[in-house]
């Protein structure tokens, strides 16, 4: 788990991109995410279910008990290889009886970030633009664990290549150790000759 200082350093290095970035949303180990827009399911005149974008200029949206909506945040977040993010519901959701569907953010993800939000309480909840809905925790796993899912789907040999690559990395490390040992032996020989 990355700290706020590490997150800011990685943002400055371009390894984590948050646009628009609000430093007030960065806590000790997470970035707070707020509602920017919502999509609601409504039946049209002929009874077909349609998805509509709600206009917050009309005021807060009243989520009925049992109603499920889709929430979009303002930020576009992109991560470089080896990084991932994990979303967690904001603690206010618990107090307000809201259940958040969320998951992980992978480095290859480049679409708007959406969450599902269910009002599990027996009363309506008035959702305002800017309501803190989730928190994002960043982690760095290293470059060698990254899986290119797009390539994996296209290349049936992908898993074999990854195993071979990792085996090659292990062999390279072993060769480095051997070279290091030989260099030590050469230094011993040189010091014996100079006496």
Question: How is this structure best described in words?
Answer:
- This protein is an alpha+beta fold and 195 residues long.
- The chain is built from four helices and twelve strands.
- It has helices at 4-12, 91-96, 149-154, 158-193, and strands at 16-19, 31-43, 49-53, 61-63, 68-73, 76-79, 83-89, 98-101, 104-105, 114-119, 125-127, 132-140.
- Strands 2, 3, 5, 7, 8, 9, 10 and 12 form an eight-stranded antiparallel β-sheet that branches. A two-stranded antiparallel sheet has the order 1-6.
- Strand 2 (31-43) and strand 3 form a beta hairpin.
- It is elongated, with a radius of gyration of 25 Å.
- The N and C termini lie far apart (54 Å).
């Amino acid at each position: 788990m990355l700290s706020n200082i590490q997150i800011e350093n990685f943002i400055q290095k371009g390894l984590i991109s948050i646009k628009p970035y609000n430093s007030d949303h960065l806590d000790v180990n997470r970035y707070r995410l707020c509602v920017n827009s919502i999509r609601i399911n409504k039946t049209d005149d002929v009874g077909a279910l349609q998805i509509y974008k709600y206009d917050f200029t009309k005021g807060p949206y009243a989520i009925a008990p049992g109603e499920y909506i889709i929430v979009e945040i303002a930020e576009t977040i992109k991560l470089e290889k080896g990084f991932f993010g994990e979303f967690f519901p904001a603690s206010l959701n618990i107090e307000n009886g809201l259940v958040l569907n969320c998951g992980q953010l992978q480095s290859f993800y480049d679409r708007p970030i959406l969450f599902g939000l269910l009002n599990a309480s027996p009363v309506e909840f008035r959702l305002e633009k800017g309501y803190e809905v989730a928190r994002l925790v960043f982690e760095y796993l290293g470059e060698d664990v990254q899986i290119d899912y797009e390539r994996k789907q296209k290349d049936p040999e992908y898993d074999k290549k990854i195993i071979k690559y990792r085996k090659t990395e292990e062999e390279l490390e072993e060769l480095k150790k051997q070279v290091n040992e030989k260099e030590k032996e050469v230094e011993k020989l040189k010091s014996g000759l100079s006496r």
